[in-house]
From TrEMBL:
It is found in: Cell membrane. One of its GO terms (cellular component) is plasma membrane. The lineage of its organism: Eukaryota, Metazoa, Chordata, Craniata, Vertebrata. It comes from the Eukaryota. This is Neuronal cell adhesion molecule. Keywords: Cell adhesion, Cell membrane, Developmental protein, Differentiation, Disulfide bond, Glycoprotein, Immunoglobulin domain, Membrane, Neurogenesis, Phosphoprotein, Repeat, Signal, Transmembrane, Transmembrane helix. Residues 607-702, 704-799, 804-905, 909-1006 form the Fibronectin type-III domain. It comes from Dicentrarchus labrax. Its main location: membrane. Residues 1-22 form the signal peptide. One of its GO terms (biological process) is brain development. InterPro entries: FN3_dom, FN3_sf, Ig-like_dom, Ig-like_dom_sf, Ig-like_fold, Ig_I-set, Ig_sub, Ig_sub2. Residues 1262-1271 have a biased composition (Polar residues). PROSITE patterns: FN3, IG_LIKE.
Length: 1271
């Protein structure tokens, strides 16, 4: 009773207390033995090799080993052939001096130290056997065609059983099918035999896997006798026999059921499970549905299975009852080691199952537990051992043995009683790397007794990590289900128990995932070309990527045509062997990504073969062929061609096309042709090469099937009719003796017929002019006439029209357009096919100038018109015109010539616009009237506007000028400003186009400025009448930045026109330089030197370089390039110069002051007193300069000065002037007068003022004031 209460209390403690889990004890701590490796329970050995029986174990101290053989102690030292490996329990049996079968036994290994004993499984050692086939003489088997047949194999028993297969004398596997297949026991079954099954080399082979040997049965000869067609019969099962059978299989093994039926026709086999469905994922069908295979069998697979054999005569069924038993298997795993601290509780569980139910026995240190010393802390309850309040010294190894009729399980589990402070087994500062959005697992493997408690911290250790997103596992591992970048950092795991505390740091790095940004794409490439697969990847920069390419899930071929780059694969000169699936795989140490694409290599198809002609008739034949290889591109069509070897040998013609799915064509043929056919296949790439031609097929001759085409009648003279046609080809003639019967008649008359051979036209003479005829041409040959021909229509020859259009009138629409009307000409007077009307017109003269032109123009109006437009007329002109009708022969007589006037139009631009007489506030514009006036000029319009230095336009001013004016002066313009001018002329119809011009007002009156270029309108050809002696006119020039632009008008016939130029006053007249200007009417002369004047002329020369015409010479002056005006007040050299002058003046003033104190006189001061200040001298009216001021004394005060208009500083007679302190005569001033204001006015006025205030000698202060006036 007390024992029972004690057990209940122990169980309560276990439920409420701490359940110890299996721990890995570090090897530096005391522990019982643990077997780490042993040979399998059923150990089959190769008799040709040494026997090695494994037994490895660990423990502290290291265990010692012993063996039992067939249940008794195996004294290894007494057997010279057996040795044990050092520090191990593994046995090595040397069979060189002993037979292997002598050591076929049951072995068990024992490993022990002072803390306990562990034992291995019972290891049954058997040698592999591959016995020879017993010799036998096999008689030939003779059977009737259609019956069933079984060829037995019956291999010798081996260990393990051999693998069976059937082959012939040439070691080629015999073909198997739903009719012929091998059973599970190795026999070869024929559901029915055929004549072709006859052979003398049916050989069964047995391969023994351990010894890698193959045994061969004697060949079997089968002779099949053929007779009348065999009688059909219903299926009958050859195996298994009867309506039902049963089979037992163990859980976890492979279940194979087979049903082989005989019958004629060959039966088809199907499978079902009577009591449920077949397990789809574990089921497969072998040997043409004759074998049902289920892998990893479970208890649910027990039941009835039905196989059915069926042909068209009936069916047969067989039911197989499956019983599933089970050798023992663990339910929750084998018992696990226990590490307990003194005073702790624990449980060892040995929970297993099996069919039938297995029994459980316990042992301690290899001794049945009932025979082991009593231990009050230990209680055995069936498959469980309970430990309560264990004490030091209770360590031991416990063995659990679970067995039934089909096997056993043996497991060792130790109980180790230790007192040990915690330690963390995971390496310190370990770095874990994980991909973003993946699971992160950080280990904190620990050991201690009692078992340590694990807590985790991150970075600052502000709180433990025990909630979302963290998961803490029982083994101390910290999990982050979906890692993000912010989860990176330093983590600390802390292990605690009652004996101490231990910390460990680890680091987590969250990396960006590897992703393929651009995947390879599906490619269809023609053979011989190149293809590129791109594979662009993004990955974490801290990870080293490795790109790998695969072809069809294997390595790329070792071929120099395949070039792998960083992000692409290039295949050059592709072949059909390159077709397949290409996969790029980007690997890093943490993850990978892959993408695949298919490559299809196409080529034009192979030519068709095996051309055959069948179903031959007079005018048709059937052509069949065999397609060639289509090379991965489906054949779209077949093209059938023929050669007429009688009429056009060597020339192939297209006959017809058929779809790519057909391999036959019905061909319609023509008579009297010797045909040869060939076929071309076409796919998405191109046509194939032609097939080999077919045999010749000849058709019989016949009368023509068709008549000539293109029959027409026309006249080449006014009294004939030419009949022509397109002749038939030899292919169309249908027979020998081809000729034509040509017939014609006037409309309503009688037919006239002639026979024509070897020609395609016939001329009928003596016909009336332009009379309609009916014509027909009939084809005929030696076998008869062709079909009745169609009637064609034609006309005899034409003659010129004999009448002109009447009632001709004109209507002027505007200044450039007129409309002419006329009445139609009667058909009989046209005497031919009406082609149209022609209007001849010409300009008599302008109404402004009566100079004659007479350049006739012709407008053609095709067809039967009664009016037409005359465009492009000159305004304000007198025109003459007439109208004519024309036919295929030519023009008729003209109508009476009439005249009309065009009204005024807008004028052209003025011929020239020149700017003259520039001044500071005015400009004069001169112009020439328009060359093309198009009416009476009623006035001119002038617009102008200023332009600033940024090329921005100012407001527009407009002036209306009378018609008789050719110049105007514009006053009140802005000083030194660029202006833009636009001038155009007006008539009553409005204003014409403008001529532009630009000009500057000048700086001051003393400044000379070259006038701006002369702009002229585009040249116009002068009237054709009253030509001047020289063919050159309006020769003008304008000087621009790039050179001098020379423009002119030319109306002479000569083609070689030159511009010649020479420097004015040149002594050598032979120095004229010339430029060829054929076809142009202007040229830019470049390279002219500034400051020089040039004589320019135009010359027209003949073929022998002879000068025929010459224009008047033109004088072109190229201005000198003006120096840029620079603000010298901001130049460094000028500032330095002024400082030097100021210093010099200061020194002079000091010297004067010293002399003054000594009683001397300052002559300059006296001179100033004697004369008026030059700054106030009157200005001359003519050149805006100051009045002269000269002094013959040695010294002279500084006076004001002003820049002359030529930009130089004039030097007075005195040597003591401001010029002496500058840059000589090249000194310049800004336009705003800054130099004058700073260095003239101030100093003089101040000196003058001071001079009037006192006549005393100047003091140093006055000298400084004088100096300040300059700076």
């Amino acid at each position: 009773m007390m024992e029972r209460r004690r057990m209940d209390a122990a169980l309560l403690v276990l439920l409420l207390g701490h359940l110890a889990t299996a721990l890995e004890v570090p090897l530096d701590l005391p522990q019982p033995p643990t077997i780490t490796h042993q040979s399998p329970k059923d150990y089959i050995i190769d008799p040709r090799e040494n026997i090695i029986i494994h037994c490895e174990a660990k423990g502290k101290p290291h265990p010692s080993f012993s063996w039992t053989r067939n249940g008794t102690h195996f004294d290894i030292d007494q057997d010279p052939n057996v040795t044990m490996k050092p520090h191990s329990g593994t046995l090595v049996v040397d069979i060189s001096r002993a037979k292997a079968e002598h050591y076929e036994s049951v072995y068990q290994c024992t490993a022990r130290n002072k803390h306990g004993t562990a034992v291995s499984n019972n290891i049954v050692v058997q040698q592999s056997r591959s016995p020879l086939w017993s010799k036998e003489k096999i008689k030939p088997i003779v059977v009737q065609e259609g019956v069933s047949l079984v060829l037995p194999c019956r291999p010798p028993a081996g260990l393990p059983p051999p693998i069976i297969f059937w082959m012939d004398n040439y070691f080629q596997r015999l073909p198997q099918s739903s009719r012929v297949s091998q059973s599970l026991n190795g026999d070869l079954y024929f559901s029915n035999v055929l004549k072709e099954d006859s052979r003398n080399d049916y050989i069964c082979y047995a391969r023994f896997p351990y010894t890698q040997t193959i045994q061969q049965k004697q060949p079997i000869t089968v002779k099949v006798l053929s007779k009348e067609p065999a009688d059909e019969r219903k299926p009958i099962f050859l195996i298994p026999s009867g309506p039902s059978s049963s089979k037992t299989v163990l859980r976890g093994q492979v279940l194979e059921m087979e049903c082989i039926a005989e019958g004629l026709p060959t039966p088809e086999i199907s499978w079902t499970k009577v009591s449920g469905d077949l397990p789809a994922k574990r089921t497969s069908f072998l040997h043409y549905q004759r074998t049902l295979r289920i892998v990893n069998v479970s208890e649910s697979d027990a039941g009835d299975y039905r196989c059915t054999g069926r042909n068209r005569l009936g069916s047969v069924h067989h039911t197989i009852h499956i019983v599933v038993n089970a050798a023992p298997y663990w339910i929750s795993g084998a018992p696990r080691n226990l590490v307990l601290a003194p005073g702790e509780n624990g449980v060892l569980t040995c929970r297993a199952s099996g069919t039938p139910k297995p029994s459980v026995t316990w042992a301690m240190n290899g001794i049945p537990i009932e025979n082991s010393p009593k231990d009050l802390s230990r209680t055995v309850d069936k498959d469980t051992i309970i430990f309560t309040v264990v004490q030091t010294g209770s360590s031991a190894v416990y063995q659990c043995n679970v067995s039934n009729d089909y096997g056993y399980l043996l497991s060792n589990a130790f109980v180790n009683v230790l007192s040990e402070p915690p330690r963390v087994l995971t390496p310190a500062n370990k770095v874990y790397q994980v991909i973003k959005n993946h699971r992160a697992l950080m280990d904190c493997a620990s050991f201690g007794s009692p078992i340590p408690n694990i807590t985790w911290f991150k970075d600052s250790r502000s709180s433990t990590l025990d909630g979302d997103p963290y998961i803490l596992h029982d083994n101390g591992t910290l999990e982050i289900h979906v890692a993000q970048a912010h989860n990176s950092g330093k983590y600390t795991c802390v292990a605690r128990n009652s004996l101490g505390i231990y910390e460990n740091h680890i680091y987590l790095e969250v990396k960006e995932p590897t992703r393929i940004l651009k995947q390879p794409e599906y490619k269809v490439v023609q053979r011989g070309r190149s293809v590129v697969f791109e594979c662009k990847v993004k990955h974490d920069p801290s990870l080293i990527p490795t790109m790998t390419w695969l072809k069809d899930d294997g390595e790329l071929p070792d071929d120099e045509r395949l070039i792998v780059d960083a992000d692409s694969l290039t295949i050059s000169s592709v072949t059909e062997n390159d077709s397949g699936e290409y996969t790029c795989i980007m690997n890093t140490t943490l993850d990978h990504d892959s993408a695949s694409a298919q490559l299809t290599v196409v080529e034009r198809p192979d030519p068709p073969t095996d051309l055959e002609l069948t179903d031959q008739k007079k005018r048709s034949v059937q052509l069949t062929w065999t397609p060639g290889d289509e090379h991965n591109s489906p054949i779209q069509k077949f093209l059938i061609q023929y050669e007429d070897i009688m009429h056009h040998r060597g020339h192939w013609h297209n006959l017809t096309e058929v779809p790519g799915t057909k391999t036959t064509a019905h061909l319609k043929l023509s008579p009297y042709v010797h045909y040869t056919f060939r076929v071309l296949a076409h796919n998405g790439v191109d046509f194939s090469r032609p097939s080999v031609p077919s045999r010749v097929f000849k058709t019989d001759a016949a009368a023509p099937d068709e008549n000539p085409t293109g029959v027409q009648g026309f006249g080449t003279e006014h009294d004939n009719l030419v009949i022509s046609w397109k002749p038939l080809s030899g292919f169309q003639s249908n027979g020998p003796g081809l000729h034509y019967k040509v017939s014609w008649r006037p409309v309503g008359g009688e037919w006239t017929t002639v026979t024509v051979a070897n020609n395609s036209k016939f001329t009928v003479s003596g016909t009336p002019t332009f009379v309609p005829y009916e014509i027909k041409v009939l084809a005929a040959n030696d076998l008869g006439d062709g079909p009745e021909p169609a009637i064609a229509h034609g006309y005899s020859g034409e003659d010129l029209p004999i009448a002109a259009p009447e009632n001709v009138q004109v209507m002027v629409m505007n200044s450039t357009l007129a409309e002419v009307h006329w009445d139609p000409v009667p058909s009989k007077l046209i005497r031919g096919h009406l082609k149209g009307f022609k209007v001849h017109y010409w300009r008599e003269h302008s109404l402004h100038k009566h100079n004659s032109h007479h350049m006739e123009q012709i407008l053609v109006f095709s067809g039967n018109h009664s009016h037409g437009m005359l465009p492009g007329l000159h305004p304000f002109s007198l025109y003459s015109f007439n109208v004519r009708v024309y036919n295929g022969k030519g023009d008729g007589p003209p109508s009476h010539t009439q005249q009309f006037e065009t009204p005024e139009g807008v004028p052209g631009p003025p011929t020239s616009l020149t700017v003259t007489n520039p001044s500071p506030d005015s400009l004069t514009l001169e112009w020439s009237p328009p060359h093309v006036r198009n009416g009476r000029i009623t006035g001119y319009s002038l617009k102008y506007q200023p332009v600033n230095n940024s090329n921005e336009l100012g407001p527009v001013e407009e002036l209306a000028l009378p018609a008789n004016e050719t110049s105007v002066t514009l006053s009140n313009l802005k000083y030194n400003t660029r202006y833009k001018f636009y001038l155009n002329a007006k008539t009553v119809r409005g204003a014409g186009p403008t001529i532009p011009q630009e000009a500057h007002t000048i700086i001051d009156e003393g400044n000379t400025q070259t006038s701006h270029p002369i702009a002229r309108s585009p040249p116009r050809h002068p009237p054709h009448k009253a030509l001047p002696v020289s063919p050159f006119g309006n020769v003008t020039s304008s000087v621009q930045e790039g050179g001098a632009l020379i423009s002119w008008e030319y109306w002479g016939p000569e083609k070689n026109v030159y511009v010649e130029y020479i420097v004015e006053n040149s002594e050598d007249e032979e120095e004229w330089q010339k430029e060829l200007v054929n076809g142009s009417q202007n040229i830019m002369l470049k390279g002219l030197k500034g400051g020089l004047a040039y004589r320019v002329r135009l010359v027209a020369k003949g073929h022998h370089d002879q000068s025929l015409h010459q224009s008047k010479e033109l004088l072109v002056t190229v201005p000198a390039v003006a120096s840029r005006q620079v603000d010298i007040a901001t130049q460094g050299w000028f500032i330095g110069l002024m400082c030097a002058i100021a210093l010099l003046i200061l020194i002079l003033l000091i010297i004067c002051f010293i002399q003054r104190n000594k009683g001397g006189k300052y002559p300059v001061k006296e001179k100033e007193d004697a004369h008026t200040d030059p700054e106030f001298q009157p200005m001359k009216d003519d050149d805006c300069t100051f009045g002269e001021y000269s002094d013959n004394e040695d010294h002279k005060p500084l006076k004001g000065s002003r820049t002359p208009s030529n930009g130089t500083v004039k030097r007075d007679d005195s040597d003591d002037s401001l010029v002496d302190y500058g840059e000589g005569g090249d000194g310049q001033f800004n336009e705003d007068g800054s130099f004058i204001g700073q260095y003239s006015g101030k100093s003089v006025s101040r000196d003058t003022a001071e001079g009037h205030e006192s006549s005393e000698a100047p003091s140093p202060i006055n000298a400084m004031n004088s100096l300040n006036s300059f700076v």
